[in-house]
Amino acid sequence: MARLTKEQELIVRKNFEEYMKIYGPLYPEGCKDFIIEHFLDESFEIDFYPDVLHQIYAHTGAYDFVKNFYDLCIDEIKADYSIDGHIIDIGCGFYPGFAEKLQKLQHDGSVTAMDYDLLTTEHGDIKLIKGKFTEFTNLAKYDLVLGIMPCEATIPMIKNANKSDKDLFIQMCGCTHFENPEMIYPITVGLWYEYVDHVLKSTIPDSRTYKFYQPDWAEYPIIKTMKK
Ligand SMILES: C[S@@+](CC[C@H](N)C(=O)[O-])C[C@H]1O[C@@H](n2cnc3c(N)ncnc32)[C@H](O)[C@@H]1O
Questions:
Q1: What is the tally of structural domains in the chain?
Q2: Is the separation of the CB atoms in 98 and 104 below 8 Å?
Q3: Is pLDDT of 3 > 90?
Q4: Residue 132 CA, closest ligand 1 atom number
């Protein structure tokens, strides 16, 4: 159960105030009110809340004080890859909280974050790309392609990383809400996982191997591809 001390909460709330002054007005209608209503409410203690709050908890430092979903993802990444390379985080969200956290841990390399919903393209430490990732986005300069719950970017990420022979890490989400012209819509989560596994298997180059598994702590599966 995640809980902040009074002192920690004061720090985090102050950072949140600063954050909302700058980024609050940039969120879509309704989203800002949702964030204000749910920031550090009981959902934080049971560790169950949407991606918009993960991003802000990382940025405001709440995630420096408690074990959290982003740290667990970073541990999974570190188990098979070096984080000291050139990394691109696809579908980073409105604010690139995960990319920011990862960059702070790097000794070398760079982090780029991409999303068509980014609230800003300015950041001192990471490169931000506001745009749509596709099967054809150029990945030549990256060592590792990753996504934390990247929803409909999942399939283009797999196809592109495999075609470009790049290491790939995806912490999946269970979303099936998006249009998927290659499948019958709507689909179940089970069918979605089957389809993802099929795309992985059918596009991976001979020089690579992949893992598709669900750790105990994760609500959804993880995908990893790496050189044999
Ligand atoms: C569930 S959110 C995850 C956000 C973030 N990774 C996090 O963990 O908080 C999925 C994000 O993927 C983005 N997205 C989906 N498809 C995309 C694409 N093809 N190109 C860029 N961004 C995409 C959406 O805009 C959304 O912000």
A1: 2
A2: no
A3: no
A4: 20
Give strand pairing partners of 53.
Answer: none
pLDDT in tens, 131-140: 999 999 999 9
- Buried b / exposed e over 79-88, threshold 16 CB at 10 Å, is eebebeebbb
Q: Which domain holds residue 50?
A: 6-64
Strands (E), 18-155: 86-90, 110-114, 127-129, 144-148
Which residue's CA is the nearest one to ligand 1's atom 8? Answer: 148
pLDDT of residue 185: 59
In this predicted model, what pLDDT tens digit does every residue of 151-205 receive, in sequence order?
Answer: 999 999 999 999 999 999 999 988 776 666 666 556 788 888 888 999 999 999 9
Decide which of 27, 44, 64 is a domain's last residue: 64
**Nearest-CA residue for atom 25 of ligand 1:** 117
